[in-house]
Amino acid sequence: MSVTEQDSLPADGERFLPDRMSGDIELEHRHRYLLAAELTVDREVLDIACGEGYGSAIMAARARRVTGVDIASAAVEQATGRYRRDNLHFARGSCAAIPLADRSVDVVVSFETIEHHTEHERMLREIRRVLRPAGLLVISSPDKAEYSDKPGYRNPFHVKELYKQEFHSLLAAHFRQVRLVGQRVMRSSIIAEEEESSPLWRRRETSETAGERPAPIYWIALAADETLPPLPNSLYESSAPTAAAPARQPNIAKLIGVVGGRESAVLRALLRSDWYREQNPDLLAAGVDPYEHWFSYGAGEGRLPSADPLSLLDRLMRERNDQQPR
Fold first, then answer.
1. Dihedrals phi, psi of 298, to nearest 5 degrees
2. 184 Cβ partners below 8 Å, 6+ apart?
3. 14-32: per-residue pLDDT in tens?
4. Domains of the chain
5. Strands 201-203 and 208-210
6. pLDDT on residue 244
7. 3-state helix, strand, coil in the chain (%, to 5)
8. Nearest to 198 by CA among 213, 211, 215, 209
């Protein structure tokens, strides 16, 4: 497989690409899979909506067998070429039609999947079908209240987000045991005695609190019919250096705007993606729509909608050609 084929997935914020993304999205995604790896030792595992395969590979280091399934053919091809182990396999399929036999796996892992579609009941029925009777589901979902409502943000790739209670109720309708743990990435500094056990004092620029925990943005659930395994609290620290903010390139940004135009669905999705939001935190803090801001100011400031502007220009040209009358 060539380098071009290996890097065929666009860095559009829809999925985490470990060799091209860092920051909050890296902390969120890797931490979940490292947690899952602790729960899948010597197990047969399905990673549904596996993306480009990095998480399946993490679990395969200790699992008996891992099958990664994704609806995107490009993701499956890239994963198959990049992550090679005897106990790791990838296949194309959807969470509503899993290409595995009944009762064929011990653990199903599904991270940041359920909010991308509306077939929640069908997905849970399929997961129950492929799970063995004593099997375990490890699944995550953004909390609609914290992820979307409070910041006034709309992720263009999310179709149906759930509130905490909706998420819990959905799982409880299919499994006897359900436990939720929360996840939230925060930029902070910790100063503490080595043996300190008192409540954590939190200091912000405008307020002080003691003992309060910030509300989770994501919920990670364990669900099974048997007793759930213990899940200790954990902290994940990335060993990779934080990626520098991309250099602003006004000429290329303006060209992207001319080629795509305001009606471009590709540009609209990119400018409202998690990746663009993380690269431009000032926009979120100001409470502005990044799509409207980009066409008014952002392009002139050189803010790039993608980490790969040349590939983006190619996508915009193809989008433009597809819209031409036949």
1. -60, -40
2. 146, 214, 215, 216, 217, 218
3. 566 666 665 666 778 888 9
4. 3-224 (3.40.50.150), 250-322 (no CATH)
5. antiparallel
6. 46
7. 35, 20, 45
8. 211
